[in-house]
């Protein structure tokens, strides 16, 4: 069974940095498009960043220039380096995989809480 396991969430102050990890067990991994999404209390889940098998990356406007997504195929892991965190970045962060290569994220991690205090 393919699973995504996230780690690295926590409570930080505004301006601090944090790195999330998402490790995949099972499956091929390297061809997968991978992404991070987040959901703040009372709000819908929104896109944060994604990375293709080629290494090409995409970001939402709200995190561009502050967050960096990367992948290490040898470790079957993706990372989200978050710098300059703001209180509005507070959310549960989910990693996701397009493991079927059909353009949709069907495989999701359990989520990691990130709380940024002002």
Short structural summary:
By secondary structure, the protein is mainly β. The protein has strands at 3-7, 10-13, 18-25, 33-39, 46-51, 57-59, 67-72, 77-82, 91-98, 107-108, 112-117.
How would you describe this protein?
The chain has 118 residues and is mainly beta. 0% of the residues lie in helices and 52% in strands. The chain has no helices and eleven strands. The strands form two sheets. Strands 2, 4, 5, 6, 9, 10 and 11 form a seven-stranded mixed sheet that branches. A hairpin with a 6-residue loop joins β4 and β5 (46-51). It is globular. The termini are far apart.
Q: Helix count?
A: 0
Give the helix/strand class: mainly beta
Secondary structure: number of strands: 11
**How much is the average pLDDT?**
96
The proportion of strand residues reads over 45%
Order of H and E elements: EEEEEEEEEEE
How do the strands and helices of this protein lay out in sequence?
Elements: E1 3-7, E2 10-13, E3 18-25, E4 33-39, E5 46-51, E6 57-59, E7 67-72, E8 77-82, E9 91-98, E10 107-108, E11 112-117
Parallel strand pairs: 2-11
Antiparallel strand pairs: 1-3, 3-8, 4-5, 4-9, 5-6, 7-8, 9-10, 9-11
Descriptive terms for the model:
single chain; 118 residues; mainly beta; seven-stranded mixed β-sheet; four-stranded antiparallel β-sheet; 11 strands; 0% helix
């Amino acid at each position: 069974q393919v699973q995504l396991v996230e780690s690295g969430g926590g409570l930080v102050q505004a301006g601090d940095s944090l790195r999330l990890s998402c490790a995949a067990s099972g499956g091929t991994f390297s061809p997968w498009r991978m992404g991070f999404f987040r959901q703040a209390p009372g709000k819908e889940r929104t896109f944060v960043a994604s990375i293709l098998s080629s290494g090409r990356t995409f970001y939402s406007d709200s995190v561009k220039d502050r967050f960096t997504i990367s992948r290490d195929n040898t470790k079957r892991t993706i990372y989200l380096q978050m710098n300059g965190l703001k209180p509005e970045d507070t959310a549960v962060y989910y990693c996701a995989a397009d493991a079927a290569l059909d353009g949709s994220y069907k495989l999701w991690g359990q989520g990691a809480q990130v709380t940024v205090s002002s």
